[in-house]
Amino acid sequence: MSDVTSAAAPTVAPIALAPGAGEALWFLGILVTVKSSAATTAGRVAVLEHLAPRGAGSPLHVHHREDEWFYVIEGELTFWVGGEVITAPAGAFVYGPREVPHTFVVSSDEARFLLVAEPAGFEDFVRALSEPAQELAIPPAATEPPDLDRLAALAAEHDIEILGPPGIPA
Questions:
Q1: If phi over 0 gives left and psi between -120 and 50 gives alpha, with beta otherwise, what is residue 99?
Q2: Tens digits of residue pLDDT in 17-47
């Protein structure tokens, strides 16, 4: 008879973070707090909390390695996933499977939302384009737009393909 207790033992430690806890980063005009990562979940899942101002979002892109989903906590986002426009108020859930082009934009004054990537690793892309947050607030507005060539090159290193500019396609 096998030892059921040891067979069912978790392979990673539990994670319990207080509100505001986690690695805080300023990422392209957004406060991102890493709640879990490849390092803390044995590569299983990355959970990133976002606090973003109106108009913040991502370029049109596709993930070749991970599935990505969003849960809106406060505010409202507008998504474009695989050609469909989705209005996502607080409480909404949006799933973007790998290989399906998508983008989003914050359509309220501010929005707080979770971005979850499975498997983990997306957080490394975020870190590569971020700086440590100076405070737990939306960063000051950038004086220059992001370097899109650098963004596309770093995205490619993480199996993310940039397909178009930020904003919802017409």
A1: left
A2: 999 999 999 999 999 999 999 999 999 999 9
CA atoms within 13 A on the CB side of 161: 9
CB 60 within 8 A of CB 49: no
Name the H helices within 8-128: 38-41, 122-128
Rounded to whole angstroms, the Cα distance separating 100 from 103 reads 10
- 43: Cβ–Cβ under 8 A, 6 or more apart, which residues? 119, 120, 121
Q: Which two tokens stand for residue 92?
A: 């909404």
The span from the CA of 117 to the CA of 65, in Å, is 10
* DSSP 8-state class, residue 51: E
End-to-end Cα spacing for the chain = 62
pTM above 0.85, yes or no: yes
Residues in the chain: 170
The rounded distance, in Å, linking the Cα atoms of 7 and 94 is 35
Q: What is the pLDDT at residue 11?
A: 83
Q: How far apart are CA 115 and CA 25, in angstroms?
A: 14
- Token digits for 148? 């899109």
